[in-house]
Amino acid sequence: MIRKKEKKINFRDRMILFVDLETTGLDMDKHEIIEIGCLLVDGKSLEILDKYHARINPEHLETGDPEGLKISGYSAGEWRDAKPLKETLKDISKLAPNAMVAGWKVDFDWWFLDKYFKKFGIKYSFDYHLIDVISIAYAHFRERNQPEELSLGDVCKLLKVPIHKGHSEGEGHNAMDDIVATYRVFKKLVA
């Protein structure tokens, strides 16, 4: 069978899906996604086209890392109306076909997403390129004396990008706040 050659899309014409996850811990083999924040951005203008946020109902909260849950700001009351992960992943796959996925340390988020897309048999059509905003920040700051660490909070502070106060005070944070801050950092660094 001869496959039709797909027309290549100029990367500038692709949408960018900024994604941030909160999880019950760092181990992809035993921890779960408990929150997803997304911004769909036009690849040329860098303007926000759509937003998506969902808290996810964890299936195995007992395997969660207490420190991870604290950092993610998890509480049973706040997650009372959480959605199933499968439903959320279906929503995201429809939100941004052919988009490049971007985020702060985006490989971490992508590993979790890819695992669960496969687990649930959900097809997605994201572009295979990932945009890691921390790498762009590294290139921008590498010859400077600041920041000492490439944390999202420190970079936001230096670039005067508003961020949820939890980052600077060591409190919990959420996926939507983080992805909005990541998008703003990206826009400042590349625009």
Q: What name goes with the CATH superfamily?
A: Ribonuclease H-like superfamily/Ribonuclease H
Give the CATH class: Alpha Beta
Low-confidence stretches: none
Shape estimate: globular
Any idea what the radius of gyration is?
17 Å
| Largest β sheet strand count, sense and barrel closure | 5 strands, mixed
Number of strands: 5
Oligomer kind: single chain
Question: Structural class from helices and strands?
Answer: alpha/beta
Structural domains: how many:
1
Q: Within the largest sheet, what's the order of strands?
A: 3-2-1-4-5
- Residue share in helix: 25-40%
Query: How many helices?
Result: 7
Terminal-residue CA separation = 44 Å
Q: For the residues shown, what is the average pLDDT?
A: 89
Gross CATH architecture: 2-Layer Sandwich
Q: What amount of the residues lies in strands?
A: 15-25%
CATH topology: Nucleotidyltransferase, domain 5
GO molecular function, one term: nucleic acid binding
Keywords: Exonuclease, Hydrolase, Nuclease
Domain Exonuclease: 15-191
Organism: Candidatus Woesebacteria bacterium RIFCSPHIGHO2_01_FULL_38_9
Keywords:
191 residues, alpha/beta, Nucleotidyltransferase, domain 5, 5-stranded mixed β-sheet, 7 helices, 5 strands, 17% strand, globular, nucleic acid binding
Give an account of the 3D structure.
- 36% of the residues lie in helices and 17% in strands.
- The protein is of the alpha/beta class and 191 residues long.
- The chain has a single domain, classed as Ribonuclease H-like superfamily/Ribonuclease H (Nucleotidyltransferase, domain 5, 2-Layer Sandwich).
- A 5-stranded mixed sheet has the order 3-2-1-4-5, sandwiched between helices.
